[in-house]
Fold:
Amino acid sequence: MKKSGSFRKDRVRKGIYLLPNLFTTGSLFCGFYSIIASMKGEYFLAAVPILIAFVLDGLDGRIARMTNTTSKFGSEYDSLSDLVAFGVAPAILVYTWALSQFGKWGWIAAFLFVVCGALRLARFNVQIGLIESKVFNGLPIPGAASVIATGVLLFYYLGGEGNFNDISVLVSVIVLSLLMVSSIKFYSFKDLNFFARKPFMSFVLIVFIMIIIIAEPQIMMFTFAFGYSLSGPVWLLIKLARKVHGEMKLKKMQLHQNQMDNKE
Structure:
């Protein structure tokens, strides 16, 4: 009887949790569908699944934690799914949409996005528990993918059609790639607790933001995605400015103290 019970436990441990992995599979499917749409030149249809994958990627982890179904398998599967949905899919989208005209520099920039996304995911996996959970070390790959996807949606919203020929896209892809592998800190939003009591004005602010997003979804989604990608560097510059200001203030105080001592 003991051997039979032990065998059943081993079988249970070797199984996988269905619910969170179904969401991960949905995210992977969105990435694959985006690639197919990009190959057909349907860039608007290729951008939307990336944003859907963004939502599904946020849900699978939360559901796994809420239902106590986290596992090593789920974590690895999620990383592989993220690489397709937020690495390969947006790279192919931005290459076929805007980078192909730049020849080898175009596909090199697209590949740089993929490899930096893969490195970002690998570094995240090995740094779990070592980095403060309130921040991300480098721009998260879903954030970088969202900038590309919402940029395409904004392009169509503003009346654009077909391909977009501008070097700013090439520069933006390179910058996003480097931000992913940088050590710049980005807010993770993991400390937000929507089930806890909040001030009344917090609820009003959230409702106001939702109304604006519903009214102008393409503009607001790009604004949030692009703004988040800039938040890390801006946060870093503010911290450096405060540090320099503090050091200058300390030097002035020391200089003033030295002058007072000399007078005495």
User: Anything to note?
Assistant: The two ends are 91 Å apart (CA to CA). The mean pLDDT is 86. Residues 135 and 187 are 5 Å apart (CA to CA). The beta strands are 135-137, 185-187.
